[in-house]
Amino acid sequence: MEVLRKSSAFASEVLDVFDRSLTEKELVSQSKALCKDYILSRLNQNGLGWSKTEINFSPSNNSMLAEASLVLLCLGDELECIQPGLYRNVARQLNISVAMESMVSDAFLGVATEIFSAGITWGKVVSMYAVAGALAVDCVRHGYPDTVHVLVDSLGQFVRRFLVPWLKRRGGWVEITKCVVKVDLTPERHWLSSTIESLKYFLTTLYVCIMKEQ
């Protein structure tokens, strides 16, 4: 019995140390850095040619975060290839004006809330970043580049409020690198497909819901 008590106490101490290994501030900062990287990639893909200086992006010396960013971008590519129309002209699908920063922020937070309404998975995390990237493209394309920073801050706000405990339990962003073992990412289709089905509905109806809540 004494051995069991000691073992249980030791396990509790290990879990406590593990939980403290990444602070809320660190996780939010990393999430925003990944968002900047994701948005920069999508802007360049769409020929909008932003530089890291314009988006105020400082390359991280953290090799783990760099690897997580690469995986996130690859999974985002896969998700957008499966359903390309879903992540294009998102502002128009939501019927919002990118000229109004508060409307873009509210719309993004509403979409993110809907994505995670039934729980948190890495597939849904990727979806959230894909929506942020698509909205950023819409904002820059229509002449409102400053709204990109609003999107990054909104994502950070959402992570702080809803995703930090989940990320902590997984040791941070490093776990997303375990989602893939091959460059083609085909094994990920099974958990991304369910996310797409839920996104089809709320992207066409979310704006109405947002307006009702105001």
Would you give an account of this structure?
This protein is mostly helical. The chain has one domain (23-213): Orthogonal Bundle (Apoptosis Regulator Bcl-x). It is built from eight helices and no strands. α2 crosses α3, α2 packs across α7 (147-169) and α3 (63-82) packs across α6 (122-141). The radius of gyration is 18 Å and the shape is globular. The model is unreliable at 2-20, 182-191 and 200-214 (pLDDT under 50).
What are the key terms here?
single chain; 214 residues; mainly alpha; Apoptosis Regulator Bcl-x; Bcl-2_fam; apoptosis
In brief:
The protein is 70% helix and 0% strand. It has 214 residues and is an all-alpha fold.
Layout of secondary structure:
Elements: H1 2-20, H2 24-45, H3 63-82, H4 90-94, H5 101-115, H6 122-141, H7 147-169, H8 189-213
Helix pairs in contact: 2-3, 2-6, 2-7, 3-6, 5-6, 5-7, 5-8, 6-7
Shape: globular
Count of individual beta strands: 0
What is the CA–CA distance across the termini? 57 Å
Category from helices, strands and their pairing? mainly alpha
CATH architecture: Orthogonal Bundle
The string of secondary-structure elements, in order, is: HHHHHHHH
Q: Strand content of the residues, in percent?
A: under 5%
Protein name: BCL2-related ovarian killer b
GO cellular component, one term: mitochondrial outer membrane
Pfam families: Bcl-2
GO biological process, one term: extrinsic apoptotic signaling pathway in absence of ligand
